[in-house]
UniProtKB/TrEMBL annotation, chains A, B, C, D:
<protein>
    <recommendedName>
        <fullName>N-acetylneuraminate lyase</fullName>
        <ecNumber>4.1.3.3</ecNumber>
    </recommendedName>
</protein>
<dbReference type="GO" id="GO:0008747">
    <property type="term" value="F:N-acetylneuraminate lyase activity"/>
</dbReference>
<keyword id="KW-0704">Schiff base</keyword>
<dbReference type="InterPro" id="IPR013785">
    <property type="entry name" value="Aldolase_TIM"/>
</dbReference>
<dbReference type="InterPro" id="IPR002220">
    <property type="entry name" value="DapA-like"/>
</dbReference>
<keyword id="KW-0963">Cytoplasm</keyword>
<comment type="subunit">
    <text>Homotetramer.</text>
</comment>
<dbReference type="GO" id="GO:0005737">
    <property type="term" value="C:cytoplasm"/>
</dbReference>
<keyword id="KW-0119">Carbohydrate metabolism</keyword>
<comment type="similarity">
    <text>Belongs to the DapA family. NanA subfamily.</text>
</comment>
<feature type="binding site">
    <location>
        <position position="53"/>
    </location>
    <ligand>
        <name>pyruvate</name>
    </ligand>
</feature>
<keyword id="KW-0456">Lyase</keyword>
<dbReference type="InterPro" id="IPR020624">
    <property type="entry name" value="Schiff_base-form_aldolases_CS"/>
</dbReference>
<comment type="pathway">
    <text>Amino-sugar metabolism; N-acetylneuraminate degradation.</text>
</comment>
<feature type="active site" description="Proton donor/acceptor">
    <location>
        <position position="144"/>
    </location>
</feature>
<feature type="binding site">
    <location>
        <position position="216"/>
    </location>
    <ligand>
        <name>pyruvate</name>
    </ligand>
</feature>
<dbReference type="GO" id="GO:0019262">
    <property type="term" value="P:N-acetylneuraminate catabolic process"/>
</dbReference>
Length: 307, 307, 307, 307
């Protein structure tokens, strides 16, 4: 089997929030303006949908299909990449979503480790990933590593070991961990057609130094424009400027963290900054009080205005 | 609304494994002999299906329905209680399973905390539970607390606070934690029609002293007969005898733990002891090597034969 | 070498606070009235000094010697047992304190696992304990297990394995963990001259059912009288009464926990209840605001008055 | 009070191992050749003594004094900086060591958070540090942050808040954590006369990008020469070369980790590589089997020879 030929994901990838109506149902009508906002206001050309930021695990399989389809349809000829997260607790559900992503013309699929039952070894995890990938063998496949959320502390480098033999469509990694040795070991191992996308936005600069090809994260929904300048400065070797922007991002996040920052607040913050109507999160997350998100949005504007 | 009238779950409740074919598909034909085995060989009269032991989270919604239906049908007029676990990462999936459990005549439903997105407070968790319970308001409802698996460390006592106002069908707790202060606080809070079922089999005796009404666990599949004697000894005030049986159970488990004990091993052990064909676990769990389960089964027979 | 013959520690053992002056120096003059208070007001006849409750790790070796000496001197012919905790991060310091405890006529010594550098295996920990015990071979020796504080999660049962060969003076265990399987396995392993003392006060009843010989804890400083009645009820087989008292203790602690309960608050609470002047804790602990301890003391009186 | 004027620590700082005799006593005679080795073979000009690598917490106060004195004496006119770690579980012991470090002419002192009793807030920790610093007010003072070892997860940025008001001699940070947002926030906060030294050797490159002034670590004992080239490449903007060296270091460490890597192995590895006789570690650490360290040393030579 020849490797899947797919464009390599680079640059910034926004992990999109899932628009819900005030009643908590998925709101497909907000997807077109969301894509336009990312392209026009943030300069972000790729998206990662139905992932952690998108509350994928709180959605039904049917809802995830409807959303993925809308993101792909509305992003066609506009976005560079639409990567659909198809990870579920159940392998069978993941396989169904993988097949569906292939049918709707997604640019890639990504899978997080199951976390209720946790794979005991890198081998077990790789077998799980392999079974999902095999359901959509032509889809570029990205493993999604986020140990703080899943509690699965297997080193990514161990998961990558020989993975191209088991998953010919393997294309890269969304690495949302702070262990930059593990990340560096992935960089030094990976062939040139893989993408190593870093996922902890507030320490992106460290990962770029270690060799990241790009970044996936929730803050690029509303800070994409700033972080595009960070990446551009880094590419030109202007570390002081890159640091200045990174520190601004950190200042914004630290302000948010002191107020209490979780996915619900993050989602409401995006609504405040973008003007989109993303709606509430779904239970077990509780809606963010409006003034809290507003306060963070104001601080964001203030800090970015200072630059 | 008047409280749901349901029989109170007491005594031992086996958390059943899910029979799979060698190919990993659900195997409904093994359910009838499974129920007979529990009744005839172990003296266990109630079951908890599609829970952690049953790999519920690795199954699709459709599979869970088929299984729940078969357990209810085959258990009718034989078992005292069939409690169906309907917890999912997605509230909507849980609601669908709750409605289904009501339709098929289950004796109760139980819900674990969602664990990918974790409720931040006891209030948030209670709201999630309420939304599920409201989908099947006539079903006796049990909250399932298992912090070591979910990573949700909210105290059960806090979750119970005022829960009868939000969930009139609330009926009790499956408490699978080692914090006996929290458990004791639940005991002292609970009205007489609730059941407080303890879920860490190897320290049941401590929970009985603290006031447990019964127990739900995986080991009761193959140690139910022994533990029924433990409970009977405890009820008669014969602590030395109860301890002897508890220590035997612990000896068996410690032997298993030294060999490497997880749900896959546990499932294979049940096949060895019972003669049922429960099949492999589903990924991300890997099948247990046959000799390992056999060795544990032999040790089990040896220890119980010593009594 | 013949085993050390020592009286077996049973019943309640108060883990004493260390009296400090308002300036933070050790206050030996408060020790005599402290002992009298325990005997006369709480009916507690044994003590465990310089342990976790006693802020042993925050004291210098010299201070620990002075304190141990005073506790032994003032307790002579009054107390049944004075057990001196001699655990330190440095083996040499522990050995010096062990020798000193023998010189001053302590009834036993106890050692916690070092926790900055953690023993990797039960063997390594047993070797550390052996080296301390060898410095005072005639002192009854108790291993002190408290994984939540030390982060050392080695199972006690594994530490006990063959320990009498390495430590002929071994006499028992202070088990401050919630894993009652591990505790039960210690009970079933231990010869009759060992003491298995349980150390999580709020779930003592569970450990008594599992076979505890007694209990060491900080709350026995001010709740000893109540818990003596709990133990007496348990001994008579009156579980409902034992539970009632256990639940009262839990109510008090839960009230304290909601207000914020740590060692500093605990110490101030003891001053409030007993009238002793125990002074502040030492840094890195901060003194407890007076109203907080007072509020807890009032709740304590109220709950115990309800009985 | 005017700020302490001290040279700013930059570049590589070796966290030294403590030489012990085969019998486990401190071995002062190995210190002179150790310093010469660092200077001549590794190009490392500053040291951090009695810290984690130096098993400081396993030593007595007296031993730590003797060692600190010898390091200062033998390093005089040779080394740029001798920073003495004076952190202890007991504030009084730390104060005594701080005074002693001042007497013997150390270039700075550093304090780790106490970890048996943990400070509950950044304020409590800052007060502890202040009390130590006040005992040696003319000594440049470095806070040592290493949450994976201490279990103290207070953010360094919060500890630094206003610290110059409480500790006029404050001079910087040894940051041994993987949270580069916290590290970045320290960088953006710190005045130019502070040093921000990074302490997780295997991800140094990420921290340099974020603004680290230098690095303190154990691997610089035997990889100092390589990492000096890494830092030089980074300073010249040659990221590919810096990455190559960082990845080599990671390859060595990953090889070691697969064999089982702890402080005992690390110490023996240094003996193998340097030819120094550093002796065994002290209990609770167990000596490393010779072949294991030899195997790692050979892999190290092989990887570095490949460059």
């Amino acid at each position: 089997m020849t490797p899947v030929v797919g464009r390599k994901a680079t640059g910034l990838v926004a992990a999109t929030f899932t628009p819900l109506t005030p009643e908590g149902e998925i709101n497909l009508s907000e997807i077109r303006p969301y894509i336009d906002y990312l392209l026009e206001q943030q300069g972000v050309k790729s998206i990662f949908v139905n992932g952690t930021t998108g509350e994928g695990m709180s959605l039904t399989v049917e809802e995830r299909k409807l959303l993925a389809e809308e993101w792909c349809n509305k992003g066609k000829n506009k976005l560079e990449q639409v990567i659909v997260h198809v990870g579920c607790m159940s392998l069978k559900d993941s396989q169904e979503l993988a097949r569906h992503a292939a049918e709707i013309g997604a640019d890639g699929i990504s899978v997080i480790s199951p976390s209720f039952f946790k794979p005991a070894t890198a081998d077990a995890l790789r077998m799980f990933l392999q079974e999902v990938a095999a359901a959509a063998p032509a889809m570029p496949f990205y493993y999604y590593h986020i140990p703080a959320v899943t509690g699965v502390n297997l080193r990514s480098r161990d998961v990558l070991e020989g993975i191209e033999n088991q998953i010919p469509s393997f294309h890269g990694l969304k690495f949302s961990g702070s262990d930059l040795m593990d990340f560096g070991q992935c960089v030094s191992y990976c062939p040139s057609h893989w993408s190593l996308l870093y996922g902890i936005d507030e320490q992106l600069l460290g990962a770029l130094a270690m060799g990241a090809n790009g970044a996936v994260g929730s803050t690029y929904n509303y800070l994409g424009s700033s972080v595009n300048r960070l990446m551009s400065a880094f590419d030109k070797g202007d570390l002081p400027k890159a640091r200045t922007i990174q520190f601004q991002m950190q200042d914004i996040l630290c302000y948010a963290i002191k107020l209490g920052f979780d996915l619900a607040v993050n989602k409401q913050l995006m609504s405040e900054v973008s003007g989109l109507a993303l709606g509430p999160p779904r239970l077990p997350l509780l809606p963010c009080p409006h003034p809290k998100a507003l306060s963070i949005a104001q601080r964001l504007q203030q800090i970015l205005g200072e630059q």
